[in-house]
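Homework-ish question, so no full write-ups if that breaks the rules, but can someone show me the predicted structure for this set?
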Amino acid sequence: MAIKKFVVGSFEDEQVLFPAVKKVRKAGYKIHDVYTPFPIHGLDQVMGLRDTSLHTAGFIYGITGTATALSFMGWVFTKDWPLNIGGKPHFPLPAFIPITFELTVLFSAVGMVLTFCYLCQLAPFVKKHHFHARATDDLMVMVLECTSRTNEEEAKAFLASVGAKEINVQVAEEGWWLGRYDKEQKLFENKTESSLV
Amino acid sequence: MSFREQFEIPAKYKMWSLILMAVGLVSILVGYFMYGAGDDHQNARFWGVLLYNSVYFLLVVNASMFFICATTMAMGGWQMSFRRVAEAISVAVIPIGIISAVILLALVLGHKHHIYHWLTPGDDKILLGKAGFLNPTFFIVWTALTIIGWIFLGAKMRSLSKETDANGPYTAEEGKKYIFKNTIWGSLYLVWFGLTVASTVPWLWFMSIDAHWYSTMYSWYTFASSFVAGMALITLFVIYLKNQGYLELVNQEHLHDLGKFMFAFSVFWTYLWFSQYMLIWYANIPEETVYFKHRVQGPYRGIFFLNLIINFLAPLLILMRRSSKRNYTLLVFMSVLIIFGHWIDFYQMVIASVSKEHVELNLFDFGVAAGFIGLIMWTAGNALTKSSLIAKNHPFFKESIIHHT
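A: Not a homework solution, just the prediction itself:
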């Protein structure tokens, strides 16, 4: 992961945010992310994000669960320790279905939760930079990533023109890191260019 | 922007519904001469085909009204843009209900004991023990009450919906009152639906064909079957109307949710189907396995597994993807497949009990089904012309316009 420079603007209303996202993308700025306190329908389309592949992962976890359950029970009751239970065949498929179903659900549920956390960069002891504390409360925070060709004064002016409030430039780690806030906060307190060395 | 609110029946649509109804009538006549006049076994096939077809299509169109009432109770708004379509389909409960009532009364009054052998219990202890429920008087009274209740409560829900066209737009206060009234009548319908489709009616009409046998899953299983086919029917009508240039406010989001219903209730159907099958298979008690003996190990084996492939595996694997639920062509294909699949399910529920020794599935079955499809097209098409296609004054209408999944 890398430390980068971001231009941050806050919006109070999604009626302003939607056209702003469209204009910012049209002007060619790179949107790092938009942080909102609640899910906003249609924002992903406007931002041009691709569909998540979380469900594909879920399907794969699910069939892994199915295969695990069937192959394990099949191996136990035909090869390892065949038992005559009520005169049923050694591979009694209907009797295996409930357990197969449960393992399918278990695998896909646990797998999808972990994958979701990974995709959102959430985990115990893992830290991420917060661009604005009120993004979890009542502000929608749009973060533009500065590239080598970005003039941040222009970007700030542009954000102001599309209705953003509290516009500032922050230098921050873009990804997640292992660590503690109290010790590493210093790195990010000084949100000026000089810390970008 | 103006909307095409008034549906005009295309000439082709009218022609096809008439052709299908004519095919149905001819099939019934030909079937009567082929089977109805024959020996007891052939006679039973004739009445069995009429029984499962009429009840299947009755429950499928009735599921439309169930869908309306269930979403009303859930304070749902997303279905408003195509609610009139579901209402129009539910109008077909009236003609098909009358036809089913006639067929069911004919079975009981005509002493068709090759279908309902509880009609002549003799000194059969089990049948005598069930005689408090399985007797002609109760059957006739309950069947009549059931169908009259569906028709009356359904008509009430439809008239409440049409009221909004003349009385609206509502103020917030009036809207609340309207929603309250709508909820009361919707809940009455649901209570009646629970007492009939979700419990007694499948016992009386279908399960009593195997009068010695019983299953506590049976009614739910029948309900799930008819509901998923009902959702498929609504989907077909919505897509047809969209292709004709109506229902401008319905988009992929609404179709996606209809697809979800088809997917979810296919899985629900399988859950009930399996819950019924597995317990009986596991316990392996002769009184219970008698129902599955000729279905799983006898001549109906092919249909038994075909049923599972069409109604479980196909919807599960095909409708699972988000993109397939938003694809009109694929949804049409799946709707047709699901309606056919549950028709086959009803076929094996009835015919496999009536004629255990050999399978007969021929043009007679398909012809009668075509007749009912034509009747649904005719009735629903006419009902659609009677009022605006858009329930634009309903208080929740805006929710449907901005619906997003």
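Now go work out the reasoning yourself. Hint: The longest strand of chain A covers residues 3-11.
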